[in-house]
Amino acid sequence: MLNSKPGILPCIEQPITENLDHWIRPATNLMHKMSDEELFWRASMVSRIKKYPFERVPKVAFMFLTRGPLPLSPLWEKFLSGHQKLFSIYIHALPSYKAEFPPTSVFYRRQIPSKVAEWGEMSMCDAERRLLANALLDFSNERFVLLSESCIPIMNFTTVYHYLMRSRHSFVGSFDDPSVYGRGRYNENMAPEVNITEWRKGSQWFEVNRKLALTLIEDTTYYPKFKNFCRPACYVDEHYFPTMFTIKAPYHIANRSITWVDWSRGGAHPATFGKVDITVEFIARIVNGNECKYNNQSSSVCFLFARKFAPSALVPLLDLAPKFIGS
Question: What keywords are assigned to this protein (predicted)?
Answer without folding.
Answer: Glycoprotein, Glycosyltransferase, Membrane, Transferase
